[in-house]
Amino acid sequence: MRVYLETFGCQMNELDSELVRGQLGSLGYQFVERDDEAQVLLYNTCSVRELAEQKALSRVGIVGVRKREGERLILGILGCMAERDGLDMLRRHPQVDILCGPAELDKLPQLIDNVRRAQDAERGELARERGVALAGNRSRRTATLSAAEDGLESLDLSRAFDADAREQPWSAYVRITRGCNKFCTYCVVPYTRGAEVHRPPDHIVEECRRLVDAGAIEITLLGQTVNHYRYTHGTAVTVGGREAPQVGPGLRAFRDDSAPIARTTTFADLLRRIHDEVPGLQRLRFVTSYPRDFGPDVLAAMRDAPRICRYLHAPAQSGSDAVLARMNRGYTVAEYEEFVARTFEALPDATLAGDIIVGFPGETDEDFERTCSLVRRLPFKNNFIFKYSPRPGTTAIDRYPDDIPDEVKRWRNNTLLAIQSETSARVHAQWVGKRVPVLFDSVRARAAASRPASGTVALRVGGEPVDAPSVAGWQAIGRTAGDLIVAVPVASEEAGRAMCGSIREVALESAQALLLTGKNVQ
Ligand code: 5AD
Ligand code: SF4
Fold first, then answer.
1. Does 310-430 match 139-309 at the fold level?
2. What percent of the chain has pLDDT over 90?
3. Which of 14, 187, 360 has most ligand 1 atoms within 8 Å of CB, for mutation?
4. Ligand 1 pocket, residue 315 CB under 6 Å
5. Distance CA 76, CA 64 (A)
6. Ligand 2 pocket, 371 CB below 6 A?
7. Helices (H), 355-472
């Protein structure tokens, strides 16, 4: 059967889609590039903002028309939107055959199979089978259940390691925790992805090793609050003698130094283990960091281990204490700044990125000005800036009316983007004159004019097109260890392609707001 799979949203979803592709591929499903060639259409959805949901819904509408016109298709909604919308989605969109939440993806082959068999058997009759796998309340109840029964681990463990599984075979994601226990008031993730579950370190190290054996040179560890990773040995259920995933230890583990400590693998330990035990890995990165609980041990590991990238994506979300408190972020602006100061003291060549929400309920002009000031003060290389989007099921939607008009949100969004642009330009300018290793990943044509030539691959950073220098010919594009984007001129498209997947030394010569340019000196 031919399958079309489209992914919306975050890196966690990209990894989920890769795993789904591997799992269905190993069962003989064939993936196609175009939706009109497929018999099974899967949309791996995101619920973090309404816009992402609307995009997925428009696909659902189009498939509905095709089905009404008589095409025999299986339509599956995967991911956070399936989990959040649940059976309401089936009521409102009868063309949907499968709903599969992000914590249930291991069940997808069975769901497709059931629908397929029901369609075969019931052709022409009224009866209709739909496949539903949602975690529902269980997604949080897992906190008290044995996470060892978590079938999802088998999905991570059964991943296809061959380079064909990934668009950029040199780069791979590895999940270290699932779910989130933070309950920021605006966020659906704790409800859609469930409680925080930590994977056993041996599984993670082994996965990294196998990816590197299969050609990966860069691995990005994924977790909603990645630095909260902590695995306590000897207490978890073991399956067949192997350690199993474990629910999060609770925040006390990060605060109470006097508590008796069982043998644990902390996030810093995990970074060191991967670094030392997988020597072929050239870049080890991680996202997303929670700005609180970022201990000196992690900074020390980053300082000591040269192949750990000194890059932190640690969202501030707001520069106002009042807004941060209503968001339930659990830190103040001063604490965030203290964390940034500590980071740069330990790692002067680090880079910092983040996320910010504008127009959170009750955000005054003064609150917003404080956020602008934070973005001016701190060396953010980039910030993803979002307009607040009230999400059903979250605390904020019940507690705080969405009282900032959309045009104010839009104005704040644009104002902050302009400020971020100045900050980014400052951060980038500091790198001019240095030599840095760059991992190349794409090629693009440049017109002599400063506007991109038609057919140019649009490169987006923080939602904004990269402003480009006026260089004719071809450019190879890559990233520094600190995730700064670098362009170097190359003689031809082929020459640029040949560089993709390799790390080369670049002398940085000039900086724009979101891009560095330089010369390959190797
Ligand atoms: N509205 C706007 N932005 C949101 N984010 C999460 N939930 C919302 C929401 N309801 C943003 C946060 C988070 C990023 C992944 O998405 O900034 O860090
Ligand atoms: Fe959402 Fe907050 Fe968890 Fe991030 S830390 S996933 S914003 S609840």
1. yes
2. 74
3. 187
4. yes
5. 12
6. no
7. 365-377, 395-399, 406-429
CATH 3.40.50.1980 fits 139-309, yes or no: no
pLDDT tier at 240, thresholds 50, 70, 90: low
Atom of ligand 2 nearest to the CA of 355: 7
> Which of ligand 1's atoms lies nearest the C-alpha of 396?
10
Match domain 2-134 to its CATH number in 3.90.180.10, 3.40.50.12160, 3.40.50.300, 1.20.81.30: 3.40.50.12160
Assigned fold of 310-430 = Transcription Regulator spoIIAA (3.30.750)
Please work out whether the CB of residue 77 comes within 6 Å of at least one atom of ligand 1: no
Cα 137 to Cα 140: distance, rounded to the nearest angstrom: 6
Nearest ligand, measured from the Cα of 391:
1
Q: Say yes or no: CB of residue 189 within 6 Å of ligand 2.
A: yes
Ligand 1: residue of 49, 318, 371 to mutate (most ligand atoms within 8 A of CB) is 49
- Domain limits of the chain? 2-134, 139-309, 310-430, 435-520
Distance between Cα 347 and ligand 1 center (Å): 28
Nearest atom in ligand 2 to the alpha carbon of residue 181 is 3
- In angstroms, the Cα distances linking 451 to 113, 285, 457, 465, 469 are 49, 33, 12, 11, 9
Task: Give pLDDT tens digits for 450-465.
Answer: 444 443 444 444 444 4
What is residue 261's predicted lDDT score, i.e. its pLDDT?
58
pLDDT for res 127:
47
> 311, 319, 264, 306: which is closest to 289 by C-alpha?
311
Residue 216 has pLDDT above 80, yes or no: yes
Distance of CA 445 to the CA centre of its chain: 28
